[in-house]
Amino acid sequence: MADKKTLTFALMDAPYENARTTTALRLIDAAVRRGYNVNVFAYEGAVAVASPTQKPHPNTVHGRDVAEENHPNPKDWVAAVIAEAERRGAKVDWVQCGLCVDERGVTELLPGTRRGTPGDFWTFAEQSDNTLVIPTR
Amino acid sequence: MAGYLLIASRDAFESRAVPDYFALAADLAAEGAAVTVFLVENGVLGARRSAAGKALEALTGSGVEVLADDFSLRERGIAIDALAGGVAPASIDIVLDHLAAGRKALWH
After folding, report:
1. Which of A11, A66, A102, B105 has a C-alpha 20 to 30 A away from that of B28?
2. CATH code assigned at A75
3. Which residues 32-51 of A have a C-beta within 8 angstroms of B?
4. DSSP assignment of B31-87, as one string?
5. A105: Cβ–Cβ under 8 A, 6 or more apart, which residues?
6. What is the pLDDT of residue A1?
């Protein structure tokens, strides 16, 4: 196996619902900061993590505008890890399950991500040094 | 035998499956495998000195390395000196170390 490690992560959770999304992105971020190549197969609700149509919102209850609220959108974190990988000469291959995006109507692709199938996950696993599946509960 | 990384994200006070997961870790260690349990998210709640912590102390006694994600500990206000015996704080980088080394990894 080459010196540059390649890890695959399968994500299944929708954003804003539990800590697994945060932990997954922490792992991916740490991996790209090592210069590892990272494959991500976003399955089921996880296809919404990289949905480019996410928008920050104000908090009218507390009287904060969009800037003050500084609401995080996970698509920005995905874009950040893709950019960080490029800076370090590594690659993030982020695949959105095609059936899953069609079912959920989140078919728009964030730059650096692509549409794929569960077959891509199989290929990722075959070609990676290791694979971690982060399942829904 | 390959080494194992068992990532434990569930609260031991909430899920009855947690003891079974720890039993799997102990069984793998008894077979001679290097086994690390990495507590993350609400999995760290059971790492405090408590009834659940005693189970982790027993696990470390069976040869399983038990680590607790430092970020998850900070999020929950759990001090290092509140951890059960044998449980050590660790960065999430340890997960990458084990994945890169080829350990078989499970997430629960």
Report:
1. A11
2. 3.40.1260.10
3. 34, 36
4. TT--EEEEE-GGGGGGGBSSHHHHHHHHHHHTT-EEEEEHHHHHHTT--GGGBPTTE
5. none
6. 45
Continuous segment of H or E residues that includes residue A82: helix A74-87
Nearest-Cα residue of chain B relative to residue A28? B96
Are A30 and B40 within 8 A, CB to CB?
A: no
Expressed as residue numbers, the domain containing A57 is 6-129
At residue A3 the predicted structure's pLDDT band, cuts being 50, 70 and 90, is confident
What's the pLDDT tens digit per position in B18-37?
Answer: 999 999 999 999 999 999 99
Give me the interface pTM, i.e. the ipTM.
0.94
Summarize pLDDT for A59-92 with one digit per residue, the tens. Answer: 999 999 999 999 889 999 999 999 999 999 999 9
Chain B nearest CA to A30, separation (Å): 7
The domain total for chain A is 1
What's the structural domain count of chain B? 1
Residues in chain A with CB shorter than 8 Å from the CB of B7 are: 132
